[in-house]
Amino acid sequence: IPLLLGLGLDEFSMSASSILEARNIIRNLNYEDMKVLSEKALNADTTEAVLALLDEALNG
Predict the structure, then answer these.
(1) 13: helix, coil or strand?
(2) pLDDT in the model for residue 58
(3) How far is the CA of 39 from the CAs of 9, 13, 17, 46, 51, in angstroms?
(4) In b/e form, how buried is each residue of 18-34, taking b as 16+ CB within 10 angstroms?
(5) What ranges in 1-60 are assigned the alpha helix state H?
(6) Distance CA 1, CA 33 (A)
(7) Contact, 31 vs 57, CB < 8 A?
């Protein structure tokens, strides 16, 4: 979700059972930070680098 928000996605399709968790994730994110995250992810050289960026965004 953080990466998708940073890329400008503002509508999500998901099962009803996922909505609460998605809302909680989104509430704890800063949109400007996610834009920076998406730029870093697009410039990352490896999948591992992208995963590390996402882990840091979600877990601090």
Answers:
(1) coil
(2) 84
(3) 14, 24, 30, 14, 14
(4) eeeeeeeeeeebeeeeb
(5) 2-6, 19-27, 31-43, 47-59
(6) 13
(7) no
d(CA 30, CA 17): 24
Query: Do 57 and 25 contact (CB within 8 A), yes or no?
Result: no
Cα distance between residue 32 and residue 59, in whole Å: 17
**Mean pLDDT throughout 28-44?**
94
Asked whether the predicted pLDDT for residue 60 surpasses 90, the reply is no
Predicted TM-score (pTM) of this structure: 0.76
Copy the structure tokens of residue 52.
């590390």
34-37 contact pairs (CB < 8 A, 24+): 34/2, 34/3, 34/5, 34/6, 35/6, 36/6, 37/2, 37/3, 37/6
